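Annex B. Sample input.
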Amino acid sequence: MEVAALVLGIVALVGGLLGPLGWIGSICAILGIIFGVLGMKKESEKKGMAKAGLIMSIIALVLSIIITVACLACVAAVANEAANELGTVDWDELSSALESLNY
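Annex B, continued. Sample output.
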């Protein structure tokens, strides 16, 4: 369990930096937290690995959530700007420009 927590914590940190694919990091982080907690409960000499995996998984989960929210905010801002820009298009001018191109 301890090794799994550590590996999942590392994968979650890397996966959390993938922007739109940050959900991969989130899933690994959640699994890493579960394995880290289970590894901490066991009496083992590998408790340090479980603790490191748990800490990295928590950091990765928070990072994944922040990056996902930031990506969604950027997409929303771009969509809003595009909607505002389309609202100010002079459709008659666009239509006459297209007609002049023989469309």
